[in-house]
Amino acid sequence: MPRPRSFNDLARSCFLAIAVALVSSSVGAQMPSSEGADGSADAVTNLKAYAEYKMGHYDTAKEIWEGLAAKGNTTALINLSNMFTQGNGVSADEKKAFSYTQQAAKLGDARAQHDVGLAYEKGSLVDRDIDKAAEWLRKSAEQDYADGQFAYGVLLATGRGKGLNSVSEADRAEAIAWLRKAQAHGQTEAAGYIKVIEEQKAKPRE
To answer: pTM (2 decimals)?
Structure first.
């Protein structure tokens, strides 16, 4: 006779079934371009991995995400980055986490591009490089990612790291434009920066 299923087995099956049903019911939603023609199937697989992760089955989640990451799935890459950042089910490893973020950024993920841009701006895990910071933050901003628009606007507004007094009129105008876009997308700090930039603009140059 088959072994009776335990409560945990039943709960796990139900949880996974609900997860799959939620994604299956929204197959018509637009999927990230990096997921390709099999995007809806990958979304279901990603959600299965997330369900395993939330239940503490880190090895299973990691294995699923690694399989998706090998296919260029940026959601899986971001989740692997988070695992190694937080040290859940693996030894915390910031360098390995950042390598996954870099892969996702190169594949066009706006969140990852923002994070890579900030890393170059701050010199965190990479050598500080303002030009590369600007390049990655602009890529993120151009995808309508609010945090990317905000960070790129602030970078321009601060003279690309040189200070408010060194900002060109062109960079100041572009900074305000990006910050207004970030504000329109719900970025709450943008308004304060716009006010500071406009006040600085009104001051006569010495």
So the answer is: 0.79
